[in-house]
Amino acid sequence: MLFHILRDLCRPQWFDILLVLKKSSGRSVGEIAEELGRSYMGIKQHCVSMEKIGYLDTWRRPRKVGRPEKIYRLTEKAEGLFPQAGNELAMGLLQVVGQVHGVNAPEKLLFNHFLAKAKAYRNKVRGKSVVERATALANLRDLDGYMARCTYDQEDGFRILEYHNPMQALMDAYPMAAKAEERMIEQVLETRITRDTIVSGSQKVNVFQVDTL
Predict the structure, then answer these.
(1) Residue 21 belongs to what H/E stretch?
(2) Which residues pair with 151 in a beta bridge?
(3) Where are the beta strands (DSSP E) in 64-187?
(4) pLDDT tens, per residue, the chain with 213 residues
(5) Can you give the C-alpha Rg of the chain in angstroms?
(6) Which phi and psi (to 5°) does residue 104 adopt?
(7) Is residue 72 within 8 Å of residue 27, measured between CB atoms?
(8) Which domain of life does the UniProt lineage start with (predicted)?
(9) pTM for this one?
(10) Rounded distance, CA 4 to CA 205, Å?
(11) Between 194 and which of 24, 66, 76, 209 could a Cys-Cys bridge form, CB atoms 3.0 to 4.6 Å apart?
């Protein structure tokens, strides 16, 4: 993965911070320091440096008591460090398919891609319950570069959060691909899901609400 190669070649501390922020909608210096087990002042210096060269920006998170808290998050420039799944080549091929076989051909091709992907996931996902299957799927998706994890709380229920989408540019061009992906996950988990997207600055988090009943 390009990100990990760059981490080894450049400043590991910077990339550790970028990865923490990628898997969130933003973090304070204190939260980053606690998660990484580093000093507050060291993390603050790194964040200030990355903000100066355009990889981070800040916003103010309200608190119940006291002044709003300064939160760091990734910029669009930083998002470019995370890999996309051959989008330029895929987009070019889909355009050619559309020109040769008609305007509906690219969508049919994408539909068949997600059918095949569902079959591949089903062969690997194990679990008697929906939660077990969702956890296994999230682990596989994480390995595929989606930075996926499962969460549960009483208010939001059980969800799969994906902090990166290697196919985002393709889905922007072909919106039906997102629906096909949603259907794919339903087939693998054997339950209904609802897809939503949370946007914070340049960061997009895909949220899959999983029906566990």
Answers:
(1) helix 12-22
(2) 159
(3) 69-74, 148-153, 157-162
(4) 555 545 544 678 888 899 899 888 889 999 999 999 999 999 999 999 999 988 899 989 888 888 899 999 998 888 777 766 556 667 777 888 888 888 888 888 889 999 999 999 999 999 999 999 999 999 999 988 899 999 998 888 999 999 999 888 888 888 899 999 999 999 999 999 999 998 877 788 999 999 987
(5) 19
(6) -85, -10
(7) yes
(8) Bacteria
(9) 0.76
(10) 21
(11) 209
The torsion angles phi and psi of 55, rounded to 5 degrees, stand at: -90, -20
Name residue, tokens 């990355």: 50
Q: Which residues contact 137 (CB under 8 A, 6 or more apart)?
A: 121, 125, 160, 185, 188, 189
Instruction: Give the angle 63-151-136 at the CA atoms, nearest 5°.
Output: 160
Residue 33, burial from CB neighbour count under 10 angstroms (0-12, 13-18, 19+) = buried
Residue intervals of the chain classified under CATH 3.30.1380 are 87-210
Q: Which CATH number fits domain 2-79: 3.40.50.170, 3.80.30.20, 1.10.10.10, 2.70.70.10?
A: 1.10.10.10
